Amino acid sequence: MIKDIEGFLIDIDGTIFRGDELIPGAVESINFLKALNKRVTYVSNRGNITRRTCYDRLKAVGVDVLEEEILLSSTVMAYFLKEHYPLSYVWTLGDSGLKEELVYHGVKISETPEKADFLIITLCETLTYHDLNQAFQAVQHGARILATNADKTFPNGKEKAIDVAGMIGAIEAASGRKTEVVIGKPSWFMVNKALAQLDVPAEKCMVIGDSLESDILMGNMHSMKTMLVLTGNTQRKHLESIPKRLEPDYIVDSIYSIVKVTL
Amino acid sequence: MIKDIEGFLIDIDGTIFRGDELIPGAVESINFLKALNKRVTYVSNRGNITRRTCYDRLKAVGVDVLEEEILLSSTVMAYFLKEHYPLSYVWTLGDSGLKEELVYHGVKISETPEKADFLIITLCETLTYHDLNQAFQAVQHGARILATNADKTFPNGKEKAIDVAGMIGAIEAASGRKTEVVIGKPSWFMVNKALAQLDVPAEKCMVIGDSLESDILMGNMHSMKTMLVLTGNTQRKHLESIPKRLEPDYIVDSIYSIVKVTL
Question: Which among B125, B140, B169 is the nearest to A170, CB-wise?
Fold first, then answer.
């Protein structure tokens, strides 16, 4: 029963927004949860923007949000590096939001690709051959590969555009090296940070999101309740004969159903 | 004995040129072979330039060359498409030389990525995210993947820059689809076209090149004599414990040795 849930991990793209459009009822749903004193954190695999950018975007549409409630894969990558590799210097392959987020959290950026300890890969919609080759130089000179996420596509208007998997694939194929850690959902690191932020045990949490492979899998692997929304990547036809670990506890048309379910 | 060789398949980058620099003695060596009435063809995995561009480059340094003696992987890709898929429309991911070469040989370019039957991949030093995504859209809409070559790096000044393998890796990783044919050396298709051009049986041919995996392998797989030059990708240290199929018949400091060996 949802009334027993104390903490919510809410996905953003495909759950609150579809492309640039706000999904009807999303803001009301979140503010409804807040009014019930539920704890909320926003957990997104977007790694090419800063938390501040995301905060502004949510605030602009009327979500009652605090900046520290937002966990992007760029933010969590910064936490990961600060926690496990505080001495390291990194190079980035991705849009400028990644680098800004890392710098904001005190991660050190290498002066040159050749000196970097890690190459951090995220989506790069501003990619050029020069960017790709600089990242490649980092890896050729020994930088280890980390990625904010490994999504293959993201919805961009009517098309599914090439996502981080493309950038990772380019570097891995040419270097023969592999990505060591993918930080985003469904990784444990994202979950740990979300639970720490919520301050609620996993058993009393629910994940709400549109992706079976990132949102639902993450929740199921960590004893959380899971709610799949059909406003994003997943449609009903995708739900036939899926493995047990991807099965959501609830399947709803949109996040707005939460208002009805809780009544 | 080299005096028994009637046809020569000569690699260009790493054998005649190193980056933009002409390798000392290269022009003299080729003109020496021509003076002995040997048949010569230039066989290069470069797919991002036209044959005309390559011809101009060789002519400019004094090589006695005919345009039809040059077989780039872009040229041979055009032959392949005309021979096996004459009805097809293609989309390209690569520098403009590829498209120009295909058009020159009568290959039809698709109006949009979505309508393409094939995506042809080569090195794209002018790559942008938009190019990559358009190529990805072609594959998402059913285009089959072909590549001019699959080299991982090419020498660019002091660094080894990311090559076609990076472009292929991006598309394959994000689409989950694989490249069906790689046209360049050491493929049979390149060999067939070279032998047809030379009009000499394989047993009376010699491959001269700097790459074990493309030049030497190609020659060994087709009963040709093979000569490895150490002016490009391969150094003596790379020759320890190599498999039999990569072992060259001759290992020389540069192509200029051919003048001495034939005497």
Answer: B169
